[in-house]
Amino acid sequence: MSNAGDAARSWSRSQSAQFQEELFEMLRIPSLSGDPAFAGDVRRMAEWLANHMAGLGLEKVAVMETAGHPVVYGEWMGAGEDAPTLLVYGHYDVVPAVMEDGWETDPFEPVVKDGKVFARGSTDDKGQLFIHIKALQAWLETAGAAPINVKILLEGEEEVSSPNLAPFIKEHLDLLRADVCVISDSSMTRIEEPAITHSLRGMTYIEVHVEGPREDLHSGFFGGATHNPALALAEIITKLFNEDNSIAVPGFYDDVAPLSDADRAMIAKTDISADEFKQATGVPGVWGVEAFTIKERVSARPTLEINGMWSGYTGPGPKTIIPHSAGAKISCRLVGNQDPERIWECLRDYIESIAPPTVKVSVSLLSTGRPALFPAELPAMRAAVRAYEKGWGHTPVFTRGGGSIPIVADIADMMSIPVVMMGYGLDSDGLHSPNEHYSLEMFARGIETAIVYLEELASL
Amino acid sequence: MSNAGDAARSWSRSQSAQFQEELFEMLRIPSLSGDPAFAGDVRRMAEWLANHMAGLGLEKVAVMETAGHPVVYGEWMGAGEDAPTLLVYGHYDVVPAVMEDGWETDPFEPVVKDGKVFARGSTDDKGQLFIHIKALQAWLETAGAAPINVKILLEGEEEVSSPNLAPFIKEHLDLLRADVCVISDSSMTRIEEPAITHSLRGMTYIEVHVEGPREDLHSGFFGGATHNPALALAEIITKLFNEDNSIAVPGFYDDVAPLSDADRAMIAKTDISADEFKQATGVPGVWGVEAFTIKERVSARPTLEINGMWSGYTGPGPKTIIPHSAGAKISCRLVGNQDPERIWECLRDYIESIAPPTVKVSVSLLSTGRPALFPAELPAMRAAVRAYEKGWGHTPVFTRGGGSIPIVADIADMMSIPVVMMGYGLDSDGLHSPNEHYSLEMFARGIETAIVYLEELASL
Question: How many CB atoms lie within 10 A of CB B244?
């Protein structure tokens, strides 16, 4: 580590109160991308970031339009044409959060308890994306320059599967040109074992609608001769699985590459026990396909989940209707060589084939995202290992992420560059859950690691 | 028909505009018994009825407290101790209704179109119970007296299965003592074929809750090893039925008396075709147990319906969670000798026996109601036939009601009197559905029939 790097790290520690206050400003903006009612807040978040980056001296700073929520862009190119260029990707949108879901404090009013800030988006991904902005600021403030060029690309639709980012990248390939992309939107099991994610699951997200009678019926007058849409939906959902909990959709597993012994050995290093899984989730028992370990099931194997289900009357007390319809949100996590479009066709064809003639069943596609995999031997990956060792204080492990960052595969394919996923969150941060939180110590260490990473990339 | 009866009928016709305006006042009160938020409106409805009956000269008029919503009582005993006494039962509460369910006009602002009034409660049961009050008023206004004594008992909890009416009746057996009970809370297929219901289905209404993880989980991090509560619920619901659509709950059919050839022949007289059923409901196909006709399935056989089902995220767009819980409202229509308490035990035991160890399943009882059956040969039934012939203009048929009026069996048992169910609604009125409506011509004919019925009962 250079003296300049040490100075940047030291300065970043001195600014922690200020950096936290800025982060809290971001967390107060409910930038929910999935609900049109919050579109104004999403834009307000984008404008806050653009103003902030412009204030730090970045150039070409702009809130750039897409067919959906805007992209925020800014760059610092002062290292010159011969220096490497890093593209930082992050997302400033969040998933829904309301007190009724079980939050102990307002999800959009950050509260610090035990060194953690509690708020929606604190770890996913506002707290993590901000690390890179603060690292660049530290270099500019202390050395007047960063070791390499840095481009920052922040999107507002990651939580709705980034429908407009791939077209945006395709349209702005020149603007975004870089040698490597870094993304901090993942997590580690414990602070002593930081993780570089080299694999992500893809996704196919669908909705199934079952329509029965043209309106809700009195169950006493029509019950017994009407196929209850909630029952018909339950039958369809049940038929998506085999007896052994594997997925019954024909063709679903066709393109899944089997896990090699080496793959399974690497995954086994981070396996968790049934007791640990029950402790972490609160479930009374572990579920799934017996042939695979828990860690394999949640990271290296494809899944199918019911994300939501609805039908009929759900208010207090009894209401004796046959509901006129029922619906479900269903999403698959995909791995290996699975193609989300092909999986969509498999799901649609199968559900249509098992739809009973006594109701009307329709299936629609909400979104897709491709899986991704990068070798741990790449130079940018080794640089990330060194950055963690120096900036964080611990050697990282390589892991497979069970979640999806749809754009990772797109960036790799369209820009022909590796994507290094340097997680700064904890598995237990509760992202997408009530009481999401983020460790302020990890926020500070992340900034220092990101400071080091810029210098490590300069020496490649 | 006596001259006095003719005068009462003639006067009732002359008052139709006034009677309708009074009915509309009732329909404007959203007396939802199932939602605690409307408890004030339920009481307002009770007070309106008490004030109205007192204004007509009834005695002992009172809003009488129960453990839930109040009972309204009033009587006219001027016919003397030797005259028969008729107990009129009706209910002034309604099921929920909101525009979003598909109402074309405000469900609590009555609108007249094509001779029908559209409003929640118009046919079930405000429009029908009011017929008896207006019939009594017509006698008192024109003859100064009715042919028999009349007691009126109106409850506010029929739509939540009358949890407090049986205790109320038990406590007030002396006050309520009568020779026959009439209830108008049922319907006919067409105006030319009025129907006396001599059988009703009972009910067992339960809720099933499935709890998985302690809070919603990120499907990417825990999917594959967590039993999705929505899937677990779907599996439980599916297992409630056999392949032939009969109910798979052990013991469920044990007490159902088989239908005799005579029973089936009587039911066949009012059977409907598959096309008629599809036309009436809008379903693409008829469902059910093939061994029984459509009419048998919807009126003479027990059923199991999913009235509501919920889990996870149901808002716009995708949200990639594993829901922490799922639930369903499930109700059975019961016939013959089925005991609702025994059916509750069968349901609970079976669901608990099939609950997987990977989730926590709980079953709770919401309400019960016993089935009822009365012979068509009873004198009070024959009097009802004559009342329809003279007052309505058509000979009635005897039918089995697929719906439930929980209190009918209780009145018959506790008071040892027959219950005559003289329906004044149409099957197509859409009760419990959006755009519930009631024919104003049938309202007028119903009042005339009820006027005649008082006279017919006097001659028994």
Answer: 10
Specify the pLDDT at position B227.
98
What's the ipTM? 0.73
The answer to whether the CB atoms of A307 and B219 lie below 8 A apart is: yes
Alpha-carbon distance B42 to nearest alpha carbon in chain A (angstroms)? 15
Residue of B nearest to A217 (CA): B433
- Domains within chain A, CATH numbers bracketed: 3-200+371-458 (3.40.630.10), 204-256+302-368 (3.30.70.360)
- CB nearest B433 (choices: A217, A282, A294): A217
Cβ atoms of B210 and B359 closer than 8 Å = yes
How far apart, in whole angstroms, are the C-alpha atoms of residue A305 and residue A328?
A: 10
Flag if B315 and A403 touch (Cβ within 8 Å): no
The verdict on a CB contact (< 8 Å) between A303 and B230 is no
Closest CA to A404 of A390, A418, A421, A426: A421
**Residue A18: CB partners within 8 Å, gap ≥ 6?**
none
Helix axes A127-143, A440-458, angle to 10 degrees: 60
pLDDT value at residue A263: 84
pLDDT tens, position by position, B343-367 = 999 999 999 999 999 999 999 999 9
Give yes or no for a contact between B310 and A328, defined as CB atoms under 8 angstroms apart. no
Give the pair of three-digit tokens for residue B164: 């407090």
Q: Counting one residue from A and one from B, how many pairs have CB atoms under 8 Å apart?
A: 345
pLDDT score of B285 more than 70: yes
Interface test with B, best of A161, A329, A359 (most B CBs within 10 A): A329
CA-CA distance, B356 to B410, in Å (whole number)?
38
Dihedrals phi, psi of B287, to nearest 5 degrees: -120, 165
The residue written with tokens 């808002």 in the block is B315
Q: Do A226 and B283 make contact, defined as CB atoms within 8 angstroms?
A: yes
Pairing status of strand A303-312 against strand B303-312: antiparallel
- Using a CB-CB cut-off of 8 Å, the residues of chain B touching A212 are 283
Residues A389-415 have a mean pLDDT of 88
Which pLDDT tens digit goes with each residue over B405-441?
A: 778 888 988 999 999 999 999 989 999 999 999 999 9
For residue B299, give how far its alpha carbon lies from the nearest alpha carbon of chain A (Å).
7
Cα(A205)–Cα(B140) distance, rounded to whole angstroms? Answer: 68
Q: Which uninterrupted H or E stretch holds A54?
A: helix A39-55
State the residue for tokens 């109601």: B369
Q: Are B219 and B321 in contact (CB under 8 A)?
A: yes
Asked whether the beta carbons of residue A228 and residue B305 sit closer than 8 angstroms, the reply is yes
Q: Is there a contact between B205 and A320 if contact means CB atoms under 8 Å apart?
A: yes
* This prediction's pTM: 0.72
- Percentage of chain B beyond pLDDT 70 is 100
Angle at A230 between CA B349 and CA B233, to 5 degrees: 40
For residue A311, what are its two tokens? 């039908």
Is the per-residue pLDDT at B1 higher than 80? no
| Cα separation values, A210 from A52, A213, A364, Å | 48, 10, 12
Ranges of H-type helices in A100-258: 127-143, 165-171, 173-176, 219-222, 229-238
